Amino acid sequence: MKFVSSKLIKENLIEEREYQVSLVDSVLSKGNTLIVAPTALGKTVIAVLLTAKVLEKNPERKILFLAPTKPLAVQHQKSFKQFTLIPEEEIVLLTGTTLPEKRVNAWNKAKIICATPQTIENDLMHGRISLKETGLIIFDEAHRAVKDYAYPFIAKQYIKQEKNPLILGLTASPGSENERIQDVNRNLFISNIEVKSLSDKDIMPYSNEIEIEWKSIILPTEFLEIKKSLNEFISKQLIALKKIGLTNTINPQMIGRKKLLEIQYKIRKELTSEKITKPSYFIAASRTAALIKLSHAVDLLETQGISPLKNYFDSMQKETEKSKASKASLMLMNSEEVQNAIKLTEKAFNAKLMHPKLMELKKILKEQFSNNPESRVLVFNHFRDSIKFLEEYLKEEKIIKAAPFIGQANKESGKGMKQKEQIQLLQEFKEGKYNTLLCSSVAEEGLDIPAVDLVVFFEAVPSEIRFIQRRGRTGRFHKGKTIILIAKNTRDEAYYWSSIAKEKRMHSTLREIKNKKENVLPKQTTLTKYTEEIKNKIEIYVDARERNSKVSELLEEMGCLIKVKQMEIGDYILSDDVVVERKTVEDFLTSLLDGRLFSQAIKMNENYSMPLYLVEGRMEDLFNLRNIHKNALIGALTSLALNYRTSVFFVSGAKETAEFLYVIAKREQFKEDKEIRLRIGRKGITSAEQQRFIVESFPMIGPQAAINLLKEFKSVKNIVNATEKELQKTELLGKKKAETIKKLLEKEYKEE
Question: Does residue 203 contact residue 35 with C-beta atoms inside 8 Å?
């Protein structure tokens, strides 16, 4: 066996495989590359080999390896420590659990950074780190580089900041649709695609066969009766939706969750428009919401069984008992068809009727462990409630030692697993404390799960990405097997064949893209040209609550790059200096009365040098809508301008708001002097004003606090030299403000 030879890789540790070496050479010669390869073919090893090559040529550079979850990032950190000769203290892990200040110190000292993308995105947004001098960024599970995920933002910042960027994307499946694959390529600035499959000649010596078997399960008559009642309600709603042109079918079997979500989006778009032309859409919105709920109920019945369905109906009943129950929930609970389905479900539950999949699963596991007691099995189930039920059900068999392996999120159905608990459970699975993991989708993606002999799909999945990832959990070190449980004449069958078709389409699409001379960004002449166009686009951060507003839609039509974030301050961020809070006249008056107006202004001032209120409506309406004295309103406006240094502009509506935001953002982002000035004074300012101006620049110090400090200490010099306790004696200064000021004054300056 021949091993990889490199100055930075430990001897006799990594087997030299032709396909891995050729892929590394391809990245180095062709630039930014997306590698699509089945699980267990050593994509992490490819990243390690590429890292070694980059650092051998440019030893002063950093390498950033991004992974969607902390356990994955931990796994990559271990791999680099295991395979490379780089000092372990220079291979760091950065996640949200580390304090920002410690992350900055770690980043500055590190050679290789393994991190979660949200952490890096956050640090980039706050200016804590720079991607200059980063020789390579690796995007693991690169298919996530779509929509508002952190990957596109990081890639864009990297292209902007680094003169010689190099990007490697790794995935088992980027999706089957041409548009999605192109989105991934665009968002990661990919210029080259490399596709590997198990049938490739250079792959075959290192791959293992995965046998796929699907077992057809026949549903009991009681299940079919419940389904019939639910479908009767669904058909009635579809007839109503068809009459107003929102669907072309009334067959419940022909309309799934995806189609219903598309209808819901269309309705919401109409109802949020400035001129509603179809009032019937108000009722249609409730009908569609009800259908989405029942679609989930049918899914539970067909794929999971009576107990999960009963739990779901119970939760729907509780929702209708609330004072603010949704119209959709009330519509369902008042329906004869749904009530009949609930009664039939109760009857089946009391009779302890179970889904036949449960018996089949137990049979499969008993046979597996009887024939091979040391084997390991993963059972995938999409629903967390069902995983809990499966755990209880399988406890009856001593030969089956099952444990749930679920995500972190806490839900009504129960507490999630912390990442430390996930890592510990994987170790216990490896050691044999458990031989079966009952997995949610968290186990589908990339985790270093020990050798698995069998993977069982409790239900089929319509996504080719999830199908490939689940299947890829077995066959890593020896021949593997996958069994898919499919309820006959249900969505299970449709989902299974859909995923198979999508996987075939994925390989076909990837081949087509790769074979084209301009395989990425077909509408652009070169990647460089596309990159320049991206750099020259106006970028606006929009609060998540504003995402579906008319303003965001108009900004996108103007060609802006919209980045949606959950923001604590403001609705729109236009630059490092400018934050905008959007209000209607009514909201402006309400926030003035309840005190929010000035507290918002304070927060905006503490974080941005140029805060702005954009108020939609006529200024004269301020004096007419509420019984507030004119002088009080004028006082509030002048106070915002003079005391809080916050401008207020009145605009006619969403269109003018978008125009204001566009012009300000363009001015800020494309001004000639791109270096942001910290403070700008004015001519003719008096000494006293200059002194106040300086003191007001201290954190959390407003006009009155600055005057109090100057009166107490007589000069700026004395304020700077004062102790923390002395500062606290000043009126309007507490311990926190004094401590913050002293920390700033004593902190060593470092140019960012």
Answer: no
